[in-house]
């Protein structure tokens, strides 16, 4: 579900204009792309329904109120309105990426592990990226990252992809991404052929 927190009435402020977005915790995008190509093997995954895994504090939920219709067929008539509040971080609010990142960082600090620094190095919103020159290390990276998010953060890392066919077969099918070129930080990464395709828009005449 997406909350359009940038919408506003004429002459009024939107929710995104009133909410502090928090400091940026994102690693430089170009750096992640470059590091992803500098080692022989890559392993990527993303967090299922990432924002919705983080609960909003009770005192902050009024910020996400929205009006809905009890009966759509009756239209916007008196008595046909109901007010809802999000209880988890919705997509569309400018502070959501910071709240997600701050939550992950907090869990990593609370549960020290050798995988933590690897997670933080190339974490981009809900995407994790691991690189190595040792193919045998990929299995360990999969197991440790899966366990860290599941046991300590109660989040599900899924759609794992790697350019190692051996490790792809090692990963349980329910944790694998579809067997086709898939998006990697907005670009197409073909793990089978180990190629990254960046589409450059054609300017108009």
TrEMBL record:
**What is the recorded name of this protein?**
Reverse transcriptase domain-containing protein
| The Reverse transcriptase domain, residue ranges | 1-189
* PANTHER family according to UniProt: PHD-TYPE DOMAIN-CONTAINING PROTEIN
Positions the record marks as coiled coil are none
Under the heading PROSITE patterns, the entry gives: RT_POL (PS50878)
The protein's organism comes out as Caenorhabditis japonica
The record's Gene3D superfamilies line, in alphabetical order, gives: 3.30.70.270, HIV Type 1 Reverse Transcriptase, subunit A, domain 1
Organism placement in taxonomy = Eukaryota, Metazoa, Ecdysozoa, Nematoda, Chromadorea
InterPro entries in UniProt: DNA/RNA_pol_sf, Rev_trsase/Diguanyl_cyclase, RT_dom
